[in-house]
Design brief:
By secondary structure, the protein is mainly β. Helix content is about 0%, strand content about 35%. The strands form 6 sheets. Strands 1-4-7-10-13-16-19-22-26-30-33-34 form a 12-stranded mixed β-sheet, with no helix packed on it. The relative contact order is 0.08.
Length: about 450
């Protein structure tokens, strides 16, 4: 099936013109959908590809209904590629859906989320440009009771919360910019996040209300653990680069690690004026700072050195957190981006970003071959078994060659690569790099 152009009829269908329920193995290329109720609906749909499409103007915009966009539920191995999605409500939703790829799209303006993943795992959100001055940009959550109970989901509808079920999603190489201004860190996030064991890497966040909000609340945001956030740029966000919530009660916030990110001149937060204020704070926390570790990041502001703030308390230096291991080996310096006012976050010659990054993990024991035992395999991606996806190119400390990951065994803490290597115990392992070590931020010089 190849669909070229579809427009809604006045008084239209109940959802929208593209209906893929129980439909699989189809190519939909060059479609145009305008002024519909919703853009596309796919329940129990698998291995479909939608590419070079234009979805523009839900009749429900600017409301917050999940019916006003691309709705994919209980569906696997679908791809949305190189398309434009404009003026939806939740413009793209992945609900109870695994191993889908959202790549190379331009998202503009949504009444609620631009895109979201809810109780779905092993999905890839890559190389998209996302902007939404109406609301927040992306969301990753579990499912509260009403998320999956929509009546049109038929036999799949579940009137219950589904938690600890949003695992191993990869969000990389996206540009998140211009979310709504908001009075606190709970709104206008580039990504509002409460998933498990995900990878958020090589993204640019500017200027949003908050770049990345690592949140907690019942029931859809109680499990926020094991995530790896690295190689991102957070610049000029209005209320901090990253806002984190620490554990309390019976929630699960733990083992979230942030490495090789560049936090520069985010505007911070002040108790009297909230997000309207301007302070040096680059990282904000609510409740407590537990469950989060920041290692080898550039964290700096042209306004001063109180770079951490309790959202309901005072600004703090990083030094006390260096002592207890929660913030380690930070660089406090102007990153010397080539042209930050034009969102060019490549590094100038002499930048402190160059070769100053940390290796992502280390090798546990010496050996040769293709199966490498590592201290922490959670940093790496092997393609998740998705057709057309390939694993990371990795490089060992002190070596110049790279190898491609073919499998990550997260339980055994082992990566398998496509050629024989030799390694020593304690040797660093990173994505491929030039120079003497990996760079901080998005780009490798």
């Amino acid at each position: 099936m190849v669909i070229r152009s579809v427009n809604s009829v006045a008084g239209g269908e109940d959802y929208g013109p593209v209906w893929l329920d129980h439909v699989s193995y189809n190519l939909i290329r060059g479609i145009t959908v305008r002024d519909s109720v919703g853009f596309l609906r796919a329940v129990d749909a698998h291995y479909n590809v939608i590419e070079d499409a234009l979805f523009d103007g839900s009749q429900l915009y600017p409301g917050s209904s999940k019916r006003g966009g691309i709705y994919i539920a209980w569906s696997t191995n679908n791809k949305i590629l190189n398309s434009t999605i404009n003026r939806g409500t939740d413009s793209l939703s992945l609900i109870r859906s695994d191993r889908n790829v959202i790549h190379g799209n331009t998202f503009t303006n949504a009444g609620h989320d631009v895109w979201n993943i809810k109780c779905g795992s092993f999905n890839v959100i890559r190389a998209n440009t996302v902007t939404n001055p109406q609301q927040k940009l992306g969301s990753v959550f579990d499912c509260e009771a009403n998320t999956t109970s929509w009546h049109d989901n038929g036999e799949f509808a579940e009137a219950r919360a589904i938690v600890d079920a949003t695992r191993r999603n990869l969000i990389e190489g996206n540009v998140f910019h211009h979310s709504i201004d908001y009075y606190s860190t709970s709104g206008g996030n580039g990504i509002q996040y409460a998933g498990q064991q995900g990878i958020i890497r090589k993204n640019i966040f500017y200027p949003n209300n908050v770049g990345l909000g690592m949140t907690q609340y019942p029931d859809e945001a109680l499990y926020n653990y094991g995530n790896r956030v690295y190689g991102n740029v957070f610049h000029n966000n209005r209320c901090g680069g990253v806002a984190v919530t620490g554990p309390r009660g019976t929630d699960h916030i733990e083992d979230n690690v942030y490495k090789n990110n560049a936090f520069w001149d985010n505007k911070g937060w002040l108790p009297d004026t909230n997000c309207v204020g301007v302070s040096p704070a680059q990282i904000l926390y609510r409740e407590n700072f537990g469950g989060h570790r920041f290692i080898g990041n550039l964290i700096a502001s042209s306004l001063g050195r109180t770079l951490l703030r309790n959202e309901y308390g005072v600004e703090e230096d990083l030094a006390p957190y260096e002592q207890d291991g929660r913030i380690l080996r930070s660089i406090e310096a102007d990153p010397q981006f080539n042209a930050e006012t034009r969102a060019d976050y490549t590094a100038r010659t002499g930048s402190p970003l160059i070769d100053r990054g940390e290796h992502l993990t280390t090798v546990r024991s010496a050996g040769t071959g293709r199966q490498i035992p590592v201290a922490d395999a959670s940093w790496f991606y092997d393609g998740f078994g998705i057709t057309g996806e390939r694993g990371d190119l990795i490089q060992l400390e002190g070596q110049t060659g790279t190898a491609r990951i073919t499998r990550v065994d997260y339980a055994a803490q082992q990566i398998t690569v496509d050629r024989d290597l030799e390694w020593r115990a304690g040797q660093g392992v990173s994505l491929g790099f030039t120079g003497t070590g990996p760079d901080i931020g998005v780009y490798e010089r």
